[in-house]
Amino acid sequence: MFLFLLTRCYISLPRKPLPPGPKPLPYIGSIIAMLRNKPTFRWIHRMMDEMNTKILCIRLGNVHVIAVSDPKIACEFLKDKDGIFSSRPDCMSAYLTSGGYLTTVLVPMSDHWKKMRKTLAMEILSVAKHKWLQNKRQQESDNLLRYIYNRCHINIAATNGVVNVRTVVEHYSSSVIRNIIFGSRYFGKGNADGGPGEEEIEHVGALLTILNYLYAFSVTDYFPWLRWITDLDGHEKIMRDAIRTAKKHQDYLVDERIQQWKDGIRTKEEDLLDVFINIQNTRLTVDHIKSQILELMLATFDNPSNAIEWAMAEMINQPRIFDKAIQELDYVVGKDRLVEESDIPNLNYLTACVKEAFRLHPVAPFNLPHVSIEETTIAGYFIPKGSHVILSRIGLGRNPDIWDDPLTFNPDRHMNGNNEVVLTDHNLHMLSFSTGRRGCPGVLLGSTITIMLLARLVQGFTWELPIKESHIDLKENFQSLAKAKPLKALARPRLQHHLYIPRY
Ligand code: HEM
């Protein structure tokens, strides 16, 4: 009877094929090809082009890695079958960064993830908290102008007016999150011109390293037992060092603050660290708070700075677009006051510029990996349990079937009459904040930070090519999607001088 049922089952449910992909070797799969073809993300995209497929399966060890560059298939994963695909892989980089899965973003599906996600949504990233923290974000938007003003106007002899836009945008996005969490821009003495001090430079460097090595196709992700023998590709040491460096600047502040609450020196919540500490008693330990803070720093830091460096480079090369953004700002805000967060809903073209930067120049080639908790079928292909699904941010955003002239920076493609332009895209024609139960809960904060950054840069200064340069070189770094060379441009104040002096 059993054999009969089994045979019937087998006959009536023929297993679908796996998605196309390279032929794997027994046991190791395509790991040798992966190691020979660094960087891995370019190898994966090359194979998708060569095989002319929008869904690819590569077996690495016994893990099926499924890459996707088609919005309909992406929606099948993250919308139709979200329940099956909302876990994350268990791997070295995520384990170390999250302090052993104490956090939210990097944590496999579990009751702990549900608890942390709810805590973030209700207590840390709610609309009410966003309003409460507005003052701190404004301090950083004002400091942004002051810092650039000091670089290009006050210190003109040293700089010739040339500003390193990468330094500026990285300092801004890391300062905003430092200020709303710790209530301070600086870990140490800082810098008198409003720029980063040595502690902030070291901290940002560590964050960048962690982000570069997170889910970076380390060999031990696919052969976990190897971790106990060797750090084959050296990723583990790099990760451990960078995490130690980042935490060196943050963790003692958490300890000090907890002591202040215990001693009664602090009695009123003034920033997100206070909020975390006051939910600590019921739900979080000190280690949870420390690890979650590092993760929020990482979640906030890279998308805004990367997008706006690229947006500025593209816009300087296309003065028509830059002028249109200036005209909108002059019309909506004028030149007698600074652009504020409350202006954002009226800045549709500027928002479209940000959205276009997210589409064409995402900070990472793939979305964070999702893992299937059971086998299933997607787009007619068999997807085994435990597969790592990586949606290609470049494959979606630069997909010629979806976007006309996809490699051209053209914000107008996002304009839709008078309808408000938003940075989210739940149809996954591009991947900004993703969607589904693992979608980003920081949309409001992330959008505000990114749009304000571009708005202040464009309103506050004229930006020109450095002398002797005919255009900005838009080459991508081969190892990542960052601009190969940091953007440097000539800035000149375009507002009345008193507006560059911070109000706080
Ligand atoms: C422009 C800025 C930002 C962009 C483009 C962005 C984008 C993303 C993306 C693509 C994901 C992965 C979604 C998925 O797995 O499908 C994500 C997850 C997440 N983001 Fe953001 N994010 C931004 C800012 C922020 C900020 C400011 C915060 C909070 C301070 C935040 C918190 C999170 C968290 C907690 C998750 C994990 C969700 C989960 O796994 O349950 N993000 N974000």
Give an overview of the whole structure.
There is one protein chain. This protein is 49% helix and 7% strand. The protein is of the alpha+beta class. It has one domain: Cytochrome p450, CATH 1.10.630.10. The strands form three sheets. The chain has a four-stranded mixed sheet with strand order 1-2-7-4, sandwiched between helices. Strands 3-9-8 form a three-stranded antiparallel sheet. A two-stranded antiparallel ribbon has the order 5-6. β5 and β6 form a beta hairpin. α14 packs parallel to α18. The N and C termini lie far apart (80 Å). Bound molecules: protoporphyrin IX containing FE.
Short note summarizing the structure:
This protein is α+β, with helices and mostly antiparallel strands and 504 residues long.
Overall pLDDT: 95
Helix and strand composition category: alpha+beta
Roughly what percent helix?
Answer: 40-55%
Residues in β-strands, percent: 5-15%
Number of domains: 1
Broad shape: globular
Q: Hetero groups bound?
A: protoporphyrin IX containing FE
